[in-house]
Amino acid sequence: MSIKLATVICFIVTSSALFSQSPRTDAGDAAGARVLDHYTVVSEFYPRTEGRESQTFEYIERVSTDAGYTPIAYRFDDLAGVHAFSRVLEIEIPGVLRDRVIIAVPVDHEPGIPPESDGSFAIATALAALERFSESRPQLTLVFVFLGAERAHGIGEGLGTRLYLDDFFAFDPTAVLYFGYRGVPERIILETGGGGTVTPLWLLTRVSQALDMTELEYVFLGNRNQMHRTRFAAEPTWIAPYLEAGVPAIGVEGSGSASDAVAAARALDGFIDAFLAHSVDGIPTAWDRHYLFFNRPEGFFVVPEPAVVVILLVTLGLTLLYGVTFRRRVGRYARSVVKNLIMIPVLFLILFGLFAAATALIELFLALRGFPALWRHAPYAFVVMKVVLAVVLFSMVFQTLKRKILPRNSTFYSAGAILFFLINIATMFLLSVSFTYFFLWAYVCAFLFSVVRRRRAKILVFALSPLWILFALHHALSFPEFTVVEGLLLSRVAGNALIAAITLPFIFMLIRIDFFVRHPVSGRSAFTLKLTTGVGIAAAILLGVYLFNLTPYTPDSPQVVSVRETIDARTNERRLSFESDAPLGRVDFRLGGEERAVTTAGRAVEFELEPRPSPVSIDVSTGTFLGRKRHTIAVESVTGVRTVSVQLRSDNAFLIYDSNFPFTMSNGNTSAEIHIGNSPPNPFAIEVTVPGASRISVEIETTTDRLTEEFSLSRDDVQTMLEVNSFKTIAEL
Question: Which residues make Cβ contacts (< 8 Å) with residue 396, sequence separation at least 6?
Fold first, then answer.
């Protein structure tokens, strides 16, 4: 009996465990399947560039209506200065609390994006969650926002976000999750800043806790977060407009392509549940902007703002305590600095000038290559080249001036390094307390450098001192942050001043090392600086040879060439141009069944073609009523129209009484721009009403996506972007 009883108990326990897990597993699989079902449907609407999202919006409306909700549509008709043949849909699901979580999803994609990266998976994830929460009330109020015309105008310039925020006001605590991943993500990258501010710490923490509960790998970009605080240093982001509007937001971006789409769908759907589970008490109103966080294998490590301040004060306090305890030694350092204080700005200006010279050499090199954007393909090599050139030049100048005007007291350089790091810390503190940690580590190392007496210990501390700054630079160069790289590399004033301020205290420490390292040849000096000069010259030569022969383009990473056919609709004159960031060389192409070739050492070339009528026809009709003229400009294209630019001009100021598109007056009301969105209907009409006595000329420029003849390039390492420009100027309306 005991064996049978044990068997029954074991069966009951096992069965209960299995059945207790089964609903969760089944629910996850069902959610993943629902995401994939929507993904299959939405993918069929490709391409979804701006103005071509109507099928997708109709599907979103149908899914929302079937779930029992009525979407609110926002249109671009009344948005000042812009227009789009698109919309924004908002679906709100009331929760137990009024606190709101906005899930924002772009609907369109940029031209030329492949189908597997068109953002369909993010739309599908949101739709599956919308359906599921219609069946059970969420803890927080969920607002799904599907953004049209979001991608076409560049990162941070989404018209969909601009339209949604135009009349937005957060009456209740609100947070935004911006689902910006393009394909089926293998890894989630969290975007945590933009526009000079960063995601609040509580939102970052909750999102990370929610992702920990899923199968998704994720990463924070800590140093990128630091750069966002500077406003001018980081690349723009999709969440910047929300943060600038005072709405806590975080971007859920993606990288790679997951091999298991079902698992990715299940994990992303579960992420929303997990985030709500960590937000049962609502949305906080606090906004900690000065925290630090660092990635590590098991997650990330956060240092909140109060801890940053405490670490800073404790570190400075301990060094001050050392000064009080060892007054004699500190007094000697202070006297050496006071005696030669004027030399600190002098040496800074010398170093600044040498970095400016290095910038000029980099610019000359890029000009000789005929490739101004080459640095984007090798940011590491170019920044290292600039620093090496400046340090070599400084070392040579220092050896020349050392016996004439520069201090020969080694104590001055140790003390100067400490003083300059303190100046850097104070400057960073005024910008943001979170910036101080870059220099705080270097300051501690400089302090230890002056305290330790053993030569090897000094060299070791010197080698460790730039660790955090090099780590931040590594991130900026490897990500890469092109705005930061361009500032450091090519900014003649601000960038060179910044890099000189960062570099000078380390050079002071290097000079101090030169005092106690003896030259192997008796009677000679400055061995360290001479060694630095020799190694630097060798490194500069090697880098120069590498960069001069660098060819960054391959079939897997092709050179982008813009191919533009321009037709003057008045004369039928036609021109074809090629343009790229890199030298074109020989370009073999096929146009209208004929093999042709063009060779140039430059980055652009243009030549005439046989005249041909424009693919775009423009007809104008005018009606007069009560002293006003109503002009109707009908536009039609055999290839479809991608963009339209309409400019009205007059010698005298004029009025526009009415227009069926938004417009902006300028130049003292003597000119006006009519704003027309991308991919308008074909045909479409522009209607403008002006005073009857007005004498106005109109210039219309249209672009299409296809050339008037069949075109192809024969190079495997080139990717073409096709465009037809058609001009037509109507002398008078």
Answer: 533
